[in-house]
């Protein structure tokens, strides 16, 4: 790697390995003052780092740092590692988290996830009580993904990631055609989604048809039962009969109108 961290008391110093035309040396990039972190955990990919305070009785901080932060594309500042004034321009604190009683930190081989654990092998005692045992999984940005408390939890280790079987030329070719592969996979996903949607719609139509058929059978049975019992069938018209409708019409006519004044 080209970056190094040194940890004098309460200060973390970041150095960058620079190459100049006639000299190769370590240039100080950033000083992180007033830090109580006592462990440094680099990502296997070298870009991200976790500063952790382990096996402490009062502080259990986890700081997630990005040492090559570029920022949004439209606002990203161009950083030139060759310039001394730009050496610390790409350092960004992503998140500060806390895991009560944390004793261990492990990066996964891809550098995408971090697991922190509180092990019974290294118990943390706070106010005479033992901290809860278990583990938490975070992404490289410090976002919590999963938490599990386990009685007598001891250790969690990531499965080793085997080396790729592809050659460098094949990997380079895949990177160049990644957009084409993405379009192809998106089309395949869309086809699968359409097929799933069609199956759901067909299933709903089948259920609706079955319900209509059941309703017609029940209505026919109910009509037959009413006829057998001689009950009046509402809304039904027998042969040769029609429903009678009685209409009443009121007509008012004024024959004479007289107005009379009554003396007081």
Automatic annotation (TrEMBL):
InterPro entries: EIF3B, Quino_amine_DH_bsu, TIF_beta_prop-like, WD40/YVTN_repeat-like_dom_sf. It comes from the Eukaryota. One of its GO terms (molecular function) is translation initiation factor binding. One of its GO terms (cellular component) is eukaryotic translation initiation factor 3 complex. Keywords: Cytoplasm, Initiation factor, Protein biosynthesis, RNA-binding. It holds the Pfam family eIF2A. Residues 28-70, 94-155 form the Translation initiation factor beta propellor-like domain. This is Translation initiation factor beta propellor-like domain-containing protein.
């Amino acid at each position: 790697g080209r970056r190094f961290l040194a940890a004098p008391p309460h200060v973390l110093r970041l150095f960058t390995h620079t190459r100049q035309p006639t000299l190769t040396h370590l240039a100080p990039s950033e000083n992180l003052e007033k830090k109580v972190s006592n462990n440094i955990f680099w990502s296997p990919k070298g870009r991200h780092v976790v500063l952790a305070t382990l096996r402490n009785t009062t502080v259990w901080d986890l700081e997630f740092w990005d040492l090559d932060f570029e920022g949004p594309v439209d606002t990203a500042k161009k950083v030139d590692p060759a310039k001394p004034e730009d050496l610390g321009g790409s350092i960004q604190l992503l998140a500060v988290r806390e895991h009560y009683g944390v004793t261990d930190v492990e990066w996964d081989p891809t550098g995408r996830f971090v697991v922190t654990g509180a092990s019974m092998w290294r118990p943390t005692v706070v106010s005479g009580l033992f901290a809860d045992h278990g583990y938490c999984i975070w992404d490289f940005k410090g976002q919590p993904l999963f938490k599990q408390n386990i009685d007598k939890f001891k250790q969690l280790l990531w499965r080793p990631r085997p080396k790729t079987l592809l050659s460098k030329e094949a990997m380079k070719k895949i990177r160049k055609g990644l957009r084409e592969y993405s379009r192809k996979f998106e089309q395949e996903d869309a086809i699968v989604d359409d097929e799933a949607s069609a199956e759901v719609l067909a299933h709903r139509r089948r259920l609706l048809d079955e319900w209509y058929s059941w309703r017609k059978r029940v209505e026919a049975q109910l009509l037959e039962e009413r006829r057998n019992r001689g009950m009046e069938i509402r809304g039904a018209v027998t042969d040769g009969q029609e429903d009678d409708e009685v209409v009443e019409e009121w007509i008012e006519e004024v024959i004479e109108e007289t107005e009379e004044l009554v003396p007081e």
